[in-house]
Amino acid sequence: MAVATVDGMPKRLRVLLDVSAVPDNPVGAGVFTVALATGLTRDRSDIDLVLLARGNDADRWARLTPGAEVHAVVPERRPMRLAWEQWSGPRLARKLKIDVWHGPHYTLPLRLSTPRVVTVHDLTFFTNPKWHEKNKVRYFRRMIRAAVKRAAVTVCVSDATAQQLAVYAPPSGPVRVIHHGVNHDRFAVAPEMAALDDARLSVLGVRQPFIAFVGTLEPRKGLVDLVGAFAEVTSKYPDLQLVLAGSPGWGTAELDAAITACPSRDKILRTGYLPNDSVPSLLRRAAVVAYPSLDEGFGLPALEALACGAPLVASAVPAISEVVGEAAVLVSPGDKAALVAGLNQALAPAESERLRIAGPKRAAEFTWATAIDSYAEVYEYARTK
Prior knowledge:
385 residues; alpha/beta; Rossmann fold; 2 domains; seven-stranded parallel beta sheet; six-stranded parallel beta sheet; 16 helices; 15 strands; globular
């Protein structure tokens, strides 16, 4: 790959990373964007990072990415933010003299002349539109197709996502698969932290033994099946608690009804969004982590559970299977009976021990350092196009 030079020296890349879609409490794609921004600032001396943030979000990004150039000018509300991207983004790119614009969350300015990179996380707007609000489906279907036609490089977070992209929104340029990493400083087996982990969980009302789910509470996560499966598993393990950790998304009425109807509802705890330190504590102390999602583009919470040595039961959707390998019990998505069998299998002492050993070994293969270096290569390639 040719590298641009000035007077025989490598020219520093001036990359704009649009972080305006990252909520105050990031999950999924937001966690990825934060990891990318902090890693590029900390580890890549060849990149001058320019962050495009919401108008009220300057302090957070200045704290997270000291040394980055932060422009907090994007409107707060989503409709205005997306309109700003299209109408004001190109003008700002020219003013800031950037080399590459990276849209880390599906979209980018369509009239931009600067080389562009876009990250596509999943294709559920096409494959399962019922899992999203109708106005988001209409917008993101159109914008994903347009973005990948204009991007110098499209990045997919898994081979599974790349294969679906080729079917539903074929890109014009090359596609690069870059897996997410794990923050191994946070998500790790840490027996010396057991007392502190227990104290953090006690404050939340979590008691052992428990099955844990971590993620946004929304229809595609398969939580109605998890509640039903939990009710059956408690007939064999009556002391179990089910902990649903995460903010409610849209469409939680079916989950609410399932919990209300569950005969073991008094053993179900909804914690809401957990503080950062409490998430690895929950994963480390869980008897099982369940991730019965009906589809994923990557499945970062599943990988974080493996890193913590948690026995994991997850859906055998293509992306999750790609990420976890043989380090988890995989079950058919949307099959409550299979989920019951998987939970019982992971709770058995011999299988639990196997999974606790296999998980960290598998998770060690995924690092943010590797992902960040790969993105730097993509940026350099895009600059030459």
